[in-house]
Amino acid sequence: MKIKVLSSAIKDLYEGRKFYEKQREGLGEYFFDSLFSDVDSLTLYAGVHAKVFGYHRMLSKRFPYAIYYTMENESVVFVWRILDMRRNPEKIKKSLEF
Q1: Whole-angstrom Cα distance, residue 41 to residue 44?
Q2: Which end of the chain has the lower number of beta carbons within 10 A, N or C?
Q3: Which residue range forms the structural domain that includes residue 23?
Q4: 71 and 56 Cβ atoms separated by less than 8 Å
């Protein structure tokens, strides 16, 4: 299965990385690596996650973030957003409207 991480998700990752790096040196890099590891796991587990706001939602294993994705056929996964779950649910819903 092929994974396409869209620019909106990359932007989310960089914002999260910047936030965690301010908390402690090196934590931003750990965040980045951890979330990419979660995204990579979609090659095996894409499609098994519940749908929320019209997207499949996979929760990160190490950080309070969710990966929102869609599938095209069963060969391509599009990662749309990677959002902090501590946000107001209405703000998350609005972030997912394209």
Answers
A1: 6
A2: C
A3: 2-95
A4: yes
Cβ 69 vs Cβ 42: under 8 Å: yes
AA letter at 54: G
* Number of domains comprising the chain: 1
> What's the CATH number where 30 sits?
3.30.2310.20
Are 76 and 64 in contact by the 8 Å Cβ rule? The answer is no
For strands 2-5 and 76-84, give the pairing: parallel
Question: Hey, CA dihedral for 24, 26, 27, 29, is it positive or negative?
Answer: positive
Q: pTM score, two decimals?
A: 0.94
Alpha-carbon Rg for the chain in angstroms: 13
Q: Could you give the CA distance from residue 21 to residue 42 in angstroms, rounded to a whole number? A: 26
Amino acid letter, 13: L
**pLDDT per position as a tens digit, 19-78:** 999 999 999 999 999 999 999 999 999 999 999 999 999 999 999 999 999 998 888 999
